[in-house]
């Protein structure tokens, strides 16, 4: 009884035969509030009967995660929603139920705060798609995350109807998103965080978002139709901006002009990540002079960042604590500049900068004994690759903490599962890790992932 009452979190291998074990399992663990149901890709998952049976035994459930539970239909989700009305967080990926099942959750779970949906295959294509609205969760929803949805626009009514929404994350969802973004400011006034990655969104969408005056965090990742014009409008209106991530995808549509606007109008900027963007000394100097709270800076894949730009950063960025440089035209001269600049600098990470030698890095380390210097000329880093497999696709999570070299060969522990852990999870993680190593962007995700967790106090 003590074990059952003390265990509130449960993760189960959700293959079809779990149905037979549900009564005994949830008689033993009768106080579960957080449940994860994960099935192997090639296995038959639990269906509606098992999900309904679980919901009858877990009426106090507040969090549910579904992964590859392809046998669950709209009917199963409807039954679950009616029995678990206290649900606060739902995350589902690679499932086959559709809009009816999603609407059932929203119409019954009035306390729902977070919704994350990835590869939901049951949504009808085209104009026949049933719209998904906020239902009873209109006032409670604070975070919506949509990933890899073919017909994600059917979530439009949900987004614009969630009047207290604070965080919106859209990753690799097809369709024209400018139309949805245009309506958001009139209905949702408190947006604080927006992530847009690999979307069809242009300056028209950014123009609409520029009226979200509470915006503090903005990620624009591989949105080539967004230009200096749109970024300037956002900067001029969203003066509370603290974190800005831009992956320009080498399109050269965002550069000095947009960054100078950010520097002039966003004095609270603490974190700036530029990938595939070509800033020059002009914009970097303006940023350093005007954004005096800038603590974390990442410059990756830039054709214009060299020793002169690093010297400018060293001389001007007095508050800078963490610096990441990857695939830039920086040499040992840039490292020498860092030896005497940035008085608050605690960590520097350099990768794939061919001009920076081991001697240069060692000299910098010796010159500033308290400075952590991590040089990687391009060798494989396992931790970085694992971090790059984050749900947002690389740089969606922010945080800089330079992982020690000694830990690079250590595999992270695998959490056991009560009803038999899935071996494919470990294999999948390993495969994704190797895949991440090939894309060359792992270091950025690893470097940025821990900024938020490691510096939560300074960012608030």
TrEMBL record:
Annotated InterPro entries: Leu-rich_rpt (IPR001611), Leu-rich_rpt_Cys-con_subtyp (IPR006553), LRR_dom_sf (IPR032675)
Gene3D superfamilies registered for this protein in UniProt: Ribonuclease Inhibitor
Stored SMART domains: LRR_CC (SM00367)
Origin superkingdom: Eukaryota
Swiss-Prot/TrEMBL GO biological process terms: SCF-dependent proteasomal ubiquitin-dependent protein catabolic process
A cellular component term, taken from the record's GO annotations: SCF ubiquitin ligase complex
SUPFAM superfamilies registered for this protein in UniProt: RNI-like
Pfam families: LRR_6 (PF13516)
Protein name as it appears in the record: F-box protein At1g47056-like
Species annotation: Linum tenue
């Amino acid at each position: 009884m003590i074990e059952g009452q003390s265990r509130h979190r449960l993760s189960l291998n959700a293959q079809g035969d779990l149905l037979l074990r549900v009564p005994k399992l949830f008689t033993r663990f009768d106080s579960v509030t957080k449940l994860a149901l994960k099935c192997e890709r090639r296995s038959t998952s639990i269906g509606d009967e098992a999900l309904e049976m679980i919901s009858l035994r877990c009426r106090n459930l507040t969090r549910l995660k579904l992964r590859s539970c392809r046998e669950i239909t709209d009917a199963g989700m409807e039954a679950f929603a009616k029995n678990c009305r206290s649900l606060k967080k739902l995350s589902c990926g690679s499932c086959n139920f559709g809009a009816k099942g999603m609407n059932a959750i929203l119409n019954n779970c009035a306390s729902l705060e977070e919704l994350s949906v990835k590869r939901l295959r049951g949504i009808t294509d085209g104009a026949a798609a049933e719209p998904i609205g906020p239902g009873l969760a209109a006032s409670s929803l604070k975070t919506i995350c949509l990933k890899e949805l073919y017909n994600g626009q059917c979530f439009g009514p949900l987004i614009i109807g969630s009047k207290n929404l604070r965080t919106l994350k859209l990753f690799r969802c097809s369709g024209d998103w400018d139309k949805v973004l245009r309506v958001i400011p009139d209905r949702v006034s408190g947006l604080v965080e927006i992530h847009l990655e690999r979307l069809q969104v242009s300056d028209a969408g950014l123009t609409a978002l520029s009226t979200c005056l509470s915006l503090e965090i903005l990620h624009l990742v591989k949105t080539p139709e967004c230009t200096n014009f749109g970024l300037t409008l956002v900067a001029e209106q969203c003066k509370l901006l603290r974190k800005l991530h831009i992956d320009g995808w080498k399109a050269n549509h965002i550069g000095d002009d947009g960054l100078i606007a950010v520097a002039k109008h966003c004095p609270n900027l603490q974190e700036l990540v530029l990938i595939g963007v070509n800033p020059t000394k002009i914009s970097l100097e303006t940023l350093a002079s005007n954004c005096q709270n800038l603590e974390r800076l990442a410059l990756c894949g830039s054709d214009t960042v060299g020793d002169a730009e690093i010297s400018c950063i060293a001389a001007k960025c007095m508050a800078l604590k963490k610096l990441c440089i990857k695939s830039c035209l920086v040499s040992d001269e840039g490292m020498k500049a860092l030896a005497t600049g940035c008085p608050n600098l605690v960590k520097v990470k350099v990768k794939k900068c061919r001009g920076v030698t081991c001697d240069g890095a060692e000299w910098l380390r010796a010159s500033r004994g308290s400075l952590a210097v991590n040089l990687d000329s391009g060798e494989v880093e396992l931790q970085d690759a694992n971090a790059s497999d984050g749900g947002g696709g690389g740089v969606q999570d922010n945080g800089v903490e330079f992982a020690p070299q000694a830990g690079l060969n250590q595999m992270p522990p695998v959490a056991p599962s009560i009803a038999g852990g899935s071996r494919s999870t470990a294999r999948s993680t390993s495969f994704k890790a190797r895949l991440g190593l090939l894309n060359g962007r792992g270091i950025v995700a690893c470097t940025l992932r821990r900024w938020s967790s490691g510096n939560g106090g300074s960012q608030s």
